[in-house]
Specification:
Rossmann fold, 3 domains, six-stranded mixed β-sheet, about 300 residues, alpha/beta, four-stranded antiparallel β-sheet
Length: about 300
């Protein structure tokens, strides 16, 4: 149910090489995190930040040194035995001699489907990810991009509530990145919980509602990527003078290095329209107006730079 926690990390620490819980290398440190059911979140951070360890704990591959992880209120392995999950690892590999369609059919059988349903789901996945011309090829003959599409196809053979994708757009060409966004949007509309890790911050910004920023095993910040209510900021460009700007948009701020460009605020589109109308009535000439959003890359750089 949306709004309830599908994923919960409760003061989770993971050390490698520790003896009796002491010493060793700390990959995650006191991570507390809740991802509500039905939302899409990203996990970002530099190499070595702890993303791989976080995913391994989430999927029950590892146990925490301290704290606990819960999926749908249960321990990860217990939840996954009952409900399963859709999972794409960062390095998706299959034996090179395996053939695309029979492989997907076999993997669908492992999901618990009977032979007829497994064939139907395999064919559906082949069509969904444009693998038709390659269905009879050996896995070893596929390009990097095609292998990635095969990995996505196998991950989504089943209809699981939890979808975990590690670097899902790696190797995809621009067209398939766009198509993959549509796939994620379908998952979100279906109420599935999606957690994805990626170094491509622009893609995370397009795909997720929030991003967990990890650094050296700590949650540095949880970044909102989709505005939800509250006052919004816009970039307003004027041609010429605007003596009534302050009356129309109280608190308007000139943007450094951009003459005639201001940062203005309005609660919603209706208020923005009213304020723009007042500005135009006063004789101002508006060259452009657009949402003033700061790219995720800049937000991450700023957050990591605070204590570097």
């Amino acid at each position: 149910m949306p709004g309830t926690a599908m994923i919960a990390f409760e003061a989770v620490t993971k050390r490698f090489g520790a003896r009796r819980g002491r010493g060793g290398v700390e990959a995650l440190s006191s991570v507390t995190l809740e991802v509500p059911a039905g939302e899409a979140w990203g996990v970002v951070g530099p190499n070595g930040a702890g993303k791989t360890t976080l995913f391994a704990l989430l999927l029950g591959f590892l146990h925490p040194t301290e704290g606990r992880v819960r999926l749908g209120g249960a321990a990860p392995r217990r939840y996954l035995r009952r409900h399963g999950a859709s999972y794409l690892p960062e390095r998706f590999r299959l034996p090179p001699e395996w053939t695309v369609r029979p492989t997907l059919v076999a993997l669908a059988r492992l999901e618990g489907y009977d032979a007829a349903e497994a064939r139907r789901r395999a064919d559906q996945a082949i069509e969904r990810f444009g693998l038709g011309p390659h269905a009879g090829k050996a896995v070893g003959a596929l390009s990097h991009g095609l292998l990635q599409r095969l990995g996505l196809a196998q991950a989504l053979l089943g209809e699981h509530e939890l979808v975990v994708l590690d670097e899902p757009t790696e190797g995809l060409d621009p067209l398939w990145r766009i198509r993959f966004r549509a796939v994620v949007e379908e998952l979100r509309r279906a109420g599935r919980t999606v957690l994805l890790a990626s170094h491509d911050l622009a893609e995370v910004e397009r795909l997720a509602g929030k991003a967990v920023l990890l650094e050296r095993g700590h949650v540095r910040e949880i970044l909102d990527l989709a505005p939800t209510g509250g006052e919004r900021t816009y970039r307003l460009e004027l041609a010429g003078e605007a003596p009534a700007l302050e009356e129309a948009f109280p608190g308007a701020e000139p943007m450094a290095g951009a003459p005639g460009v201001y940062r203005v605020r309005a609660a919603d589109a209706a208020e923005l329209s009213r304020r723009l109308a007042a500005l135009l009535d006063a004789g101002a000439v508006v060259a452009s107006v657009a949402p003033a959003t700061e790219a995720l890359e800049e937000r991450v750089r700023r957050a990591l730079g605070r204590e570097s």
